[in-house]
Every structure is written in C-alpha cells, then in structure tokens.
User: Fold this.
Amino acid sequence: AQSVSQHNHHVILSEAASLELGCNYSYGGTVNLFWYVQYPGQHLQLLLKYFSGDPLVKGIKGFEAEFIKSKFSFNLRKPSVQWSDTAEYFCAVGSTLGRLYFGRGTQLTVWP
Amino acid sequence: GAGVSQSPRYKVAKRGQDVALRCDPISGHVSLFWYQQALGQGPEFLTYFQNEAQLDKSGLPSDRFFAERPEGSVSTLKIQRTQQEDSAVYLCASSPDRFIDSGNTIYFGEGSWLTVV
Assistant:
C-alpha cells in the first residue's frame, strides 16, 4: 500500500538556520513527488514537485528537494530559513488519476 | 475569484444532521478532488471527478458520504447522519487536466471546517 512518512512532527529553528525535513514513501508505481506548504489560515500551496529528470528539484521561496530513489526519500531543504517560513509542510506521493497520498505533516516554527 | 472556492467555511452540525459542502473549482478545470483532513493529520483522499464522471470514490469512508458534480463544474459533498468522527476539514482541489502525470498542478481550496457536536 502507498504511504508517506514524515519523520519530524514539529521542528523549531531560529532565523538563518538551515532546514531539512525528511520524507520517505512507499509506492509501487511511477513516482510523482510533491511538497506542499500551508501557512496559518491559508490553503495548501505547492512548493515543488518531481516528475522525472534531475532529481534535485528547486521550488519557490528558496526551497529545494532531492529525490533519492534508492532510499525512497524526498527530503525538503532550505539553507537559511526566515520567520515567514513558519507553516505546516506536507510531503505527498501522486498516483495515476491525480490521487495524492500525504504524510501527516511537519509543523515548522521559526523564531526571529 | 481565481482560486478554488469552498462554502461554508465553517459548519457546526448536531450529530445525526445532514450537511452539504460546496466546491467551486477554478473555471475550466477538468479534474476535481475531495480530501478529508482530521486534526493533526495530512489530507486523505475521498473521491475524484473528471468532468461530471466520478472515476474514483474508493476513499469515501462510508455510505453516508456522497459526492456529485452533475454539470462538470461545481461539486457538492454530502454527509448524511453526521457523527463525531466526521469532524474534520474537507478540502476540495482542482486541476486543469485529466491526469496528474501531465505535470499539471493541483490547486486546493481553503477547506470547509466541519465540527459535529
């Protein structure tokens, strides 16, 4: 069965610290991978996605993620976080017909 | 507006009451999805429409849940005889194309928060 694991439920960082959020997946088909962000009171927004090609994917707001097939991982990174990055982050695997399987999310709190 | 619109934003229902949640997708979007997000969890898939056809309803948790999209645009998620475990945020999402493999992004609405008391 398809599943997505996000290792950290709550991460607290100071501004300018580096960020890495873990994501591991289990899926039997062709993998499409996503990171979504949900700012307080707002809807889910796409940060970045991987469909094929270069396994290092760059997204909006300085975020990037690396697809490592051998490790079934798609970790999210940012070299220097800002207070405005405080949000909940969701990793997801996409199947055919567009169905997404989400992890339970990681709450990121950045202190100024 | 330009985004996915959902109504009501907040709904408090008494146990046993029927509720209807509405989704207005982005104009022209072919695909429409419903997800359920319980507190502290990630969204879980409920059902998928391609235009007016409901192609996947495998995520609907019980026969109390019913969704429709009769004209291929607006969709309604109906929950009959609500129970406390139905309390969650119900998210609607739409995509311009039929298959996610084409690379199209899925756009989410802000959700309808349902509390069953």
Observations:
- Chain A has a mean pLDDT of 92.
- The radius of gyration of chain A is 13 Å.
- The CA atoms of residues 24 and 70 of chain A lie 11 Å apart.
